[in-house]
């Protein structure tokens, strides 16, 4: 269950980052509320997962999901570059995250 919580925590981090971008564009209060809510849920679930998963592994997976998710959201929803070098870096992060899961 801790791994599920960690993955969901990473997804909420991605959501928070997307709302951060949305807030910087619109300066509306709704994205700000969702930003705070997304990061609060993310940190709560990260804390929960760290009761079972080691801190280093949990934090690396959590940030990896956030980086990959934030970059992917930026590429597909905000018109950021889809250059092959960026995609290669995302692939490397995913491989490292999977490697940490395998050796944990």
TrEMBL record:
Pfam families cross-referenced by the UniProt entry: Multi_Drug_Res
- Ribosomal protein as UniProt keyword: no
Keywords per UniProt: Cell membrane, Membrane, Transmembrane, Transmembrane helix, Transport
Tell me the compartments it is located in. Cell membrane
What topology in the membrane does the UniProt record assign? Multi-pass membrane protein
Kindly report the protein's main subcellular placement as a broad class.
membrane
Q: Does the keyword Ligase apply?
A: no
Transmembrane feature ranges? 32-50, 57-78, 84-103
Q: Describe the family membership recorded for this protein in Swiss-Prot or TrEMBL.
A: Belongs to the drug/metabolite transporter (DMT) superfamily. Small multidrug resistance (SMR) (TC 2.A.7.1) family.
Protein's UniProt name? Multidrug efflux SMR transporter
Q: State the organism of origin.
A: Ureibacillus aquaedulcis
């Amino acid at each position: 269950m801790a791994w599920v919580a960690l993955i969901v925590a990473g997804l909420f981090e991605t959501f928070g980052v997307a709302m951060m971008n949305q807030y910087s564009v619109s300066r509306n209060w709704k994205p700000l509320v969702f930003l705070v809510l997304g990061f609060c849920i993310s940190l709560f679930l990260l804390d929960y997962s760290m009761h079972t998963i080691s801190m280093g592994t949990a934090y690396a997976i959590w940030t990896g999901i956030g980086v990959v998710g934030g970059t992917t959201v930026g590429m597909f929803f905000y018109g950021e570059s889809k250059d092959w070098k960026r995609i290669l870096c995302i692939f490397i992060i995913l491989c490292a995250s999977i490697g940490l899961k395998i050796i944990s």
